[in-house]
Design a protein that fits this description.
Blueprint lengths: L31 H19 L3 E8 L19 E7 L2 E7 L5 H21 L2 H9 L12 H5 L11 H15 L7 H18 L2
Antiparallel strand pairs: 1-2, 2-3
Helix pairs in contact: 1-2, 2-3, 5-6
Length: 203
């Protein structure tokens, strides 16, 4: 199930490295809303073609859809997009961040889903399931996200690197360490948050 995945800010799947090359605009001529409709339609058709329901779809990105917040825009510093859903007993996440806009990354996800539909037409359900195993995501983290634990929830993703993570870790360790009046459990949570953060940013 993907109900614990947050839509904003971006929930990148554990174990998937971030794109390290230069980002291009891509050859897509699609705006964000159109790309979103394309992904929704592709998921619906994929479910129909496979005769397997697509449950709990979540679009996770740094695009803030809340019109009352100052960060509401479709051009965030980190343009990565991840589409999470459950299908045939698998929790699947398709993350793309190689393009410079969320619209282009979302359109790429649409094309990836369409490729799975092509596999269904020319192959078997077992083949598609094997392909999707490569996109299988670890269960969404329960409880607080590493950004919240490290106090980095409001820091733009583009500014979060190893040094930022380590500095935030040391600052909070002063309070959480058992010798400073904290607890073993609080320190373990902090350690896990640092590890998750470093994995996500590829540091």
């Amino acid at each position: 199930m993907t109900t614990a995945v947050r839509a904003f800010p971006l929930e990148w799947p554990a174990g998937f490295p971030r794109w390290k090359g230069g980002r291009s605009a891509g050859a897509f001529r699609t705006d964000f809303d159109t790309a979103l409709r394309n992904v929704r339609k592709s998921l619906d058709l994929f479910a129909k073609d496979s005769a397997k329901k697509v449950d709990d779809p979540v679009l996770s990105s740094n695009v803030d859809f809340n019109p009352l917040t100052s960060g509401s825009n479709k051009k965030p510093d980190d343009p990565g997009v991840a589409v999470w859903f459950s299908w045939d007993g698998l929790q699947v996440c398709i993350p793309v961040d190689r393009y410079s806009t969320p619209a282009a990354n979302l359109q790429a996800i649409h094309l990836i889903i369409e490729a799975r539909r092509t596999e269904l037409r020319h192959g078997t359900l077992a083949l598609v399931r094997a392909t999707f195993t490569g996109f299988q995501a670890l269960p969404a983290p329960q409880g607080k996200h590493w950004r919240d634990i490290l106090g980095l929830a409001k820091v733009p993703s583009v500014d979060v690197g190893r040094a930022t993570i380590e500095n935030a870790y040391r600052e909070r360790a002063r309070e959480r360490h058992p010798d400073a009046g904290g607890s073993t459990e609080a320190m373990a949570e902090l350690n896990a948050a640092r590890d998750a953060a470093l994995r996500e940013v590829g540091a």
